[in-house]
Amino acid sequence: MKILVCISNVPDTTSKINFTADNKEFDKNGVQFVINPWDEYALTRAIELKEAKGGTVTVLNVGEADAEPNIRKALAIGADDAIRVNANPKDAFFVAQQITAVAKENNYDMILMGKESIDYNGSQVHNMVGEMLGIPSIVPAFKLDLVDDNTAVLEREIEGGKEVVEVKLPFIASAQQPMSEPRIPNMRGIMTARTKPLAVREPVGADVKADYVNFSKPEKKSGVKMIDPENAGDLIKLLRNEAKVL
What we know:
By secondary structure, the protein is α/β, with parallel strands linked by helices.
């Protein structure tokens, strides 16, 4: 079984976020990057399936060279090889085109990724790839099991309950907790990751459908105002005039 896991290189949530002076681009200076946490659920589940059923797990990243430390981390966790499409991931459509191009060349049985990236939260790529490849897309799933070599069963949340989906391979799915328990690389994994194949390829000539006009930070939260419980009128004035919720 051949499984492709797509991972994004995203800022750590503890990093201080800044933009360039013209607010046109994200400023990477001083930012720590990590594997997108949602992608780690997909990666770990793929490795679990490989360990149980056999096969290979390939990691794919659409990104620049600074993503390679986290690609190596994915290899240390247990992926067999990796592909990096050497490009700035401009928008969801662009990324979907790159994944589709790789998938068409390698006939994967299953394509997994996180339900969204924690930087842009678009949650679009998996459905685009499914449409481009003409295969089922199940999103987001919190459980994934194989029935046999040709069939999988997934569970996903729906309004007021859950939905159980049986699907023939190949398919694409996005992952969310608790699909698996993300793993921390051990020393042996870190050592072997250094020699595992990491292929770098150039992007296909895909169109970009969206452009970013500018970025801005949310307004800083104002301080807490304490109101004497005997002065309910002051509270009402603040809710009406400042919070504007009345």
